[in-house]
Specification:
Radius of gyration: 17 Å
Largest sheet: 3 strands, antiparallel
Number of domains: 2
Distance between the termini: 30 Å
Helix content: 55-70%
Number of strands: 3
Order of helices and strands: HHEHHEEHH
Shape: globular
CATH superfamily of the largest domain: Winged helix-like DNA-binding domain superfamily/Winged helix DNA-binding domain
């Protein structure tokens, strides 16, 4: 059997490289492995339910619970029971979380400019469109196999 395309390997390498760079940069804030991803999504979606956060980050419930607990302990987010479903939790950024989010966006934009060097605006738009299509395909597979 032969590998049909190196696409997934290239995407995986890219994702791991960016994640490693971000983790290194945010270590000074006592963020542990992958927590910046959760904090970003919480700041962008204040009040998001933990179950929706799990789906958005495409991880298991345990990973989300652990990240939320640690971010809460660090003072970057707060949890509160959902008004409609008292079993569910909503998560919100704190002021400290929002300040850190600003720093995270600056780093993300810096890394993005490095990633997109040499690509025209048109190439960037096509790349984004293709990534969104791939993401939709993978999301369906993830939902049917990981939830």
């Amino acid at each position: 059997m032969k590998l049909q395309s190196p696409l997934l390997r290239e995407l995986g390498t890219l994702c791991r490289s960016i994640q490693s760079l971000m983790e290194t940069r945010f270590r000074r804030y006592q963020l542990q492995r992958g927590q910046f991803i959760f904090l970003t999504r919480i700041c962008e979606n204040p009040g998001i339910r933990q179950t929706d956060l799990t789906r958005l980050c495409r991880v298991d419930k345990g990973t989300t619970a652990k990240a939320v607990r640690k971010l809460s302990e660090a003072g970057y987010i707060r949890r509160q029971h959902d008004r409609e479903d008292k079993r569910a939790w909503n998560v919100f950024p704190t002021e400290a979380g929002n300040v850190l989010y600003g720093d995270m966006l600056a780093e993300e934009n810096r890394e993005l400019s490095i990633c997109l060097q040499g690509l025209s605006v048109e190439e960037q738009a096509v790349f984004l469109e293709i990534l969104r299509k791939i993401n939709q395909n993978v999301e369906a597979d993830w939902i049917s196999n990981c939830q």
